[in-house]
Amino acid sequence: MIIGYNYYKMGKIIEDKITKITEEEACYYLREVWNKMYNEYPSKDSLALLWAQWALESGRGFFCHCYNWGNIKKVHLPDDGHDWCMFRCNEILNGKAEWFDPPHPQTHFRAYPSPLEGAFDYVNFLANRKRYKPAWEEVKKGDPIAFSHQLKVCGYYTASESLYTKGIVRLTNEFKKKYDKLIQWKPKLPESPSESMEKYIDLKPIEIITIPNHIEKIKTKSLFEIIIDLLRKIFRLF
To answer: Which of the four pLDDT bands, split at 50, 70 and 90, describes residue 10?
Structure first.
């Protein structure tokens, strides 16, 4: 299975929509994802950091687009295999907010069919990418200030570090006060990872990128044939 790019699946564009996630739902899904990855539930401190960043990035879930928990950008070259949507957004460049409108590449974000799949990819994105390893180490320690700093250093966000950190700290403390209440929520029908999600997301915390082993053709193709197939999909030369 794969962490990162899936060279055998081209993501498709889907219509953007707001997919609201409640505070209770966020707590539940983040907790269950962590348990699936590590075979144990996260500490209150670690869970608080993930919940806080989700709340900060999505306006407490009121402005979550297509179940993208952390506003993860879509990558096209090479294609990362994820479906995607477009919506107006801004980045802080040279200290000023610059707005981008579709179809500008800055407006391209990953999109998911359910909150569970979005949560898996969000946690997997932080936990298994080498680039974000320093930030993930702070998640495991439960340090909100160091977590925010490492996210900035790694290039996760372009906003002011001081303002982003204040938001993370404030929301972390808020979560801890409401923890006992939030943790009680459970869906009416427990969800399990879909087959499609399991094919493209490795739930184990490793740091290497591998080619998906569920594709049988890979066993009989030479490296040259694989490269040609990749070029066909990306550049549509043939």
So the answer is: confident
Place of tokens 């490795």: 202
Q: What's the chain's Rg over C-alpha atoms?
A: 18
In order, the DSSP letters of 71-84 are -PBP-TTTT-S--E
Q: What is the pLDDT of residues 89-103, one digit of tens each?
A: 999 898 899 999 999
Distance CA 148, CA 151 (A): 5
Burial class of residue 95, CB neighbours in 10 A (0-12, 13-18, 19+): exposed
In the CATH hierarchy, which top-level class contains the domain 23-235? mainly alpha
Contact between residue 122 and residue 197 where contact means Cβ atoms under 8 Å apart: no
Cβ of 52: how many Cβ atoms within 10 Å? 23
Q: Do 70 and 50 form a contact (C-beta atoms < 8 A)?
A: no
130: part of which helix (H) or strand (E)?
A: none
pLDDT: which is higher, 8 or 106 = 106
Question: In sequence order, what are the residues at sequence separation of 6 or more whose Cβ sits closer than 8 angstroms to the Cβ of residue 87?
Answer: 16, 65, 102, 107, 109
Domain residue extents for the chain:
23-235
CA 106 to chain centre: 16
SS3 of residue 156 by DSSP: coil
Which residue has tokens 């297509």? 66
